[in-house]
Amino acid sequence: MKDIEQILMNIRQKILEIADNQRNLLSENEELISQVLKLKEENEQLLTRITELENKDLNLHIGFSLDNSEKERLTNNIDKLLKEIDKSMELLKS
Fold first, then answer.
1. Is 67 helix (H, G, I), strand (E, B) or coil?
2. 77 with 85: CB under 8 angstroms?
3. Spatial CB neighbours of 66, under 8 Å, sequence gap ≥ 6
4. Of the candidate ranges 18-27, 41-50, 66-75, 76-85, the one whose mean pLDDT is the lowest
5. What is the rounded average pLDDT of the residues 36-52?
6. Cα separations (Å) of 1 from 10, 12, 15, 47?
């Protein structure tokens, strides 16, 4: 009879250890999920930043590849558009 009681006590002890291990693993899993989500967000921000920098790089290459007359023409067009925008803003205000 004592052998059976000892076996039952051992089983109970193992069950308690398993339950404790499960709680620890669940807690660790939650922490890891949180870290993964944080890293995914950081990765998305870095990808966005890379895209922005690539666009700036492309714009710089385009800017350097234009000759002076094309740059002047584009500058004049931009100036005209800005003046039209300013006029439109003034009309909207009044």
1. coil
2. no
3. 74
4. 66-75
5. 94
6. 14, 17, 21, 68
Tell me the C-alpha distance between 85 and 78, whole Å.
10
The alpha helices in 1-94, defined as continuous H runs, are: 2-65, 68-93
Q: What are phi and psi of 67, to 5 degrees?
A: -85, 175
Question: 19 and 27 in contact (C-beta within 8 Å)?
Answer: no
Per the prediction, the chain carries an average pLDDT of 89
Place of tokens 């950081």: 42
Burial 71-94 (b: 16+ CB within 10 A, else e): eeeeeeeeeeeeeeeeeeeeeeee
For the chain, first and last CA: distance in Å?
100
Q: Which residue carries 């023409």 as its tokens?
A: 73
